[in-house]
Design goal:
By secondary structure, this protein is α/β, with parallel strands linked by helices. Helices cover about 35% and strands about 15% of the residues. The protein has helices spanning about 40-50, 70-85, 105-110, 135-145, 165-175, 190-200, 215-225, 230-235; strands at about 20, 55-60, 60, 95, 100, 120-125, 150-155, 175-180, 210.
Amino acid sequence: MMFGLFKKQVPEKHAGHHLLTDMHSHLLPGIDDGAPDIATSISLIKGLAALGYTWLITTPHIMNDMYPNTPHIINERLHDLRQALSKQNIDIQIEAAAEYYVDEFFEELLQTEELICLPGNKILVEQSMLQAYPRFKDVVYELRLKGYTPIIAHPERYVYMAEQKHDYQWFKDSGCLLQVNLLSLQGYYGKSERKLAEYLYREGMIDLYGTDCHHDRHLARLSKFATETNAIRLSENTKIY
């Protein structure tokens, strides 16, 4: 099963292979609301490996005062985690980028700091679940001007977009990619989120699927989801880019 694959610009060791890749998770220890320590990180990674994942691009939050992470902090934690995985002979490719919360702070970062990206200068961005950031489209435009490809994290979880579905097409037309959480299709976050995820699926707008794995509860539901009909259907329709 293939839930979210990078076919281009993959690490050389993976060239020519179809990888089961997750590009949205919170696996670095003690850095945000994901894994609190290395032991939990390793447990979650083992669980994802058991589902067949071979390449993980974990994406800790960068969110002003709440999660004031930087590329330096993220890379330090990634180094520590890689060492711990190596000591336990766990053979899995793990990289790190970030999930940026778009607000005034991010707009300042965009002008003054180097951003930490996914392969191909792709940048994972999110906004509030409660209401749209009023300058979100302006930020998308600025990102594109600077040569980034925005990946809109879990657009199905912004339930206010149910009344403005045309914005999904605006994102696509503006050069964004849309990343849906697998568990949204299982109804994990709620009925509204599931309906929006199914809408995006029917409209062929989903570019990437991510686990958005934070903890054991997510892993347990992902394990259950992997045996369901939806997962088989998704694996047959995953887009590779």
